[in-house]
UniProtKB/TrEMBL annotation:
Cellular compartment(s): Cell membrane
InterPro entries: DUF2179, N-reg_PII/ATP_PRibTrfase_C, UPF0750_membrane, YitT
Membrane topology qualifier: Multi-pass membrane protein
CC annotations in GO: plasma membrane
Alphabetized PANTHER family for the sequence: UPF0750 MEMBRANE PROTEIN YITT-RELATED, UPF0750 MEMBRANE PROTEIN YQFU
Residues of the DUF2179 domain: 248-287
Main localization category: membrane
Name recorded for this polypeptide: YitT family protein
Transmembrane segments: 20-38, 58-79, 86-107, 113-132, 152-174
Alphabetic keyword roster: Cell membrane, Membrane, Transmembrane, Transmembrane helix
Top-level taxon: Bacteria
Length: 296
């Protein structure tokens, strides 16, 4: 049977020191969140972790068991849709998490509900983020949703939101509205922290500038901030009350990091207060000068 390079199981990558360290670090953070903050205080998260803790609350099943079983469909879908390497990373991460939940003793850290909600979310987010950076996962809800949306015509975000809303409604009904609200805080804290861990402070943002002083703006962005630009030919004007007044212009687009965007916007606004600017988050970028400079 012919096999492409992408279909070959790369054990060297999966078992590399960096990958294993990130997986272990992520698993330890997740276990601290689950056993040190969430379970002792009957707090939940969203996703499969939230469902697993909910099953633990109702039936007193060790949380590692439903967490592993619920993620098995994700591993299978990942194998079919993404590849062997991804499925192997995911399975190894889940095995590490299951073992750590069984053998690692973690005392209850605090009973303060606000601290539990915030720091439980922080450690969950760190755990998810580090494991994703290693190539694995410990919560497969998003990929399951991606697969399911083709069957029901709903977007991935709608399916995830529907599942998590159901989880939080169950929490509100059985554990009280206060626990549900704190669990929502945990969930959104985990999302934000995992985003920072995965994307880093160098998350890329597209900055678009429309200005009558386009030559000055282009020179400043390229020469002072050392950023490559793309220029589109556009048209300024067409405003309410003066629809017929318009002029040709250059639309300047550059890609910057999260930390750079505010500095560049401030510099542009100081030199041209009438410049129109807007930013867009970029999920992925590759190729060109940007990749050579940033390593993305």
């Amino acid at each position: 049977m012919n096999r492409t390079i992408s279909e070959t199981l790369d054990l060297r990558s999966i078992l590399s020191l960096k990958s294993l360290i990130l997986k272990l670090l992520g698993v330890i953070c997740a276990v601290v969140a689950i056993k040190g903050f969430m379970i002792p205080n009957h707090f939940l998260d969203g996703g499969l972790l939230g469902i697993s803790i909910l099953l633990h609350e109702f039936y007193h099943i060790d949380v590692w068991l439903p967490l592993l079983l619920l993620n098995i469909p994700f591993v299978i879908i990942g194998y079919k849709k993404i590849g062997k390497n991804f499925a192997a990373h995911a399975l190894l991460s889940l095995i590490f998490l299951g073992i750590a939940l069984i053998i690692l003793p973690v005392p209850e850290v605090t009973k303060d509900h606000f601290l539990v909600a915030v720091f439980g979310g922080v450690f969950v987010g760190l755990g998810i983020g580090f494991v994703i950076r290693s190539g694995g996962v410990i919560d497969g809800l998003e990929v399951i949703a991606e697969y399911t949306n083709k069957q029901f015509g709903l977007s991935t975000s709608e399916i995830i939101m529907a599942i998590n809303t159901t989880i939080f409604l169950i929490i509100a009904f059985f554990l009280g509205i206060e626990k549900a609200m704190y669990s929502i805080v945990t969930f959104f804290t985990a999302i934000k922290i995992s985003d920072y861990v995965v994307d880093g402070f160098e998350k890329l943002i597209s900055l678009t500038i429309i200005s009558p002083n386009s030559e000055m703006i282009k020179s400043m962005v390229v020469n002072e901030f050392d950023k490559p630009i793309t220029v589109y030919k556009g048209e300024r004007g067409n405003l309410p009350g003066s629809f017929g007044i318009k002029a040709d212009c250059d639309i300047i687009v550059t890609v910057v990091t999260r930390l750079e965007v505010h500095k560049i916007k401030k510099a542009i606004a100081e030199r041209d207060p009438k410049a129109f600017m807007f930013v867009q988050n970029i999920r992925e970028v590759g190729g060109g000068i940007l990749s050579k400079k940033s390593g993305h």
